[in-house]
Amino acid sequence: MHFAYPPRKSSNPPPFRPRSTRLPLLRRSRLKTVGLGLFAFLCILYLLFGRSKPSPYHERVPSGTPSVVLVTVIDPTNWNNAYLSTIKENREKYAARHGYEVMVVKAYDYDTHGAPQSWAKILAMRHALSTYPDCKFIWYLDQDAYIMDPTKSLEDVVLEPKKLESLMIKDFPVVPPDSIIKTFSHLRGQDTDFIVSQDKEGLVHKSVIVRNGEWAKFFVETWFDPLYRSYNFQKAERHALEHIVQWHPTILSKLALVPQRTFSSYSRPELGDTYQEGDFVVMFAACTESGERSCETESSKYWSKWRAAFGLT
């Protein structure tokens, strides 16, 4: 019996049908989604735990030692040295009594970059801020003034917040008589950084108080800006101060205007409020280098009085 041979396979089998690409594409899509999700999760973990959060900015608060630095610029090249010696003694005796620091510096030690040497007062204030970074206040008092009452601390006179607030002149023209810019009506004593008074013509820039801090640095740099030094204001740094106070809200918003006799009484009545017995400071406004109105002549009326008050006679 013969059995048939199985049919021979073709040597040219039909080609395989291509596999569907749907499944690999789906896998790739899922892998991509999983990968992105994992990456996002890792990013969140890094943001939460992988780095330290930057602390918010906090302005450095001075320790308050010393509480006050009393600054005076003297000009030995143009003014009588005997007179300037009495100014230096006056400052040193007062500061020693109340535990303040004192800086009596020479005008020619500062480069005013071609501006009048009177601008040195601003550089001296900046110098004091850098020399005493922990002081609480800078009091600049010019060389044409005596402190007359040593029993009064600056805190008692004007710095204590409630005292300052009771003295503040609010909603009043910054520069007399008719400036359209007025002092803030809602400002509190504790929020002020700059204390100044007025005479009949404008701000008394020769006796000012500045609270130490970042604002103080901004203030002195703004006041000493080259633009104002080169502007040829009629009264140099005084008019520059009046300009920045009126047109820079950042400065006006920190300004406390107080009565002139608080710490800037004048020896003569022509320009402002006149010194009266018991006033804290007397200033020899518009005194000259020599002659009848010289600072030495004007100050001689008060020399024995302040020395007696200080117990030096």
From TrEMBL:
The keyword Glycosyltransferase applies. It comes from the Eukaryota. One of its GO terms (biological process) is protein N-linked glycosylation. It holds the Pfam family Glyco_transf_34. The keyword Glycosyltransferase applies. InterPro entries: Glyco_trans_34, Nucleotide-diphossugar_trans. GO terms for cellular component: mannan polymerase complex. Belongs to the glycosyltransferase 34 family. This is Alpha-1,2-galactosyltransferase-like protein.
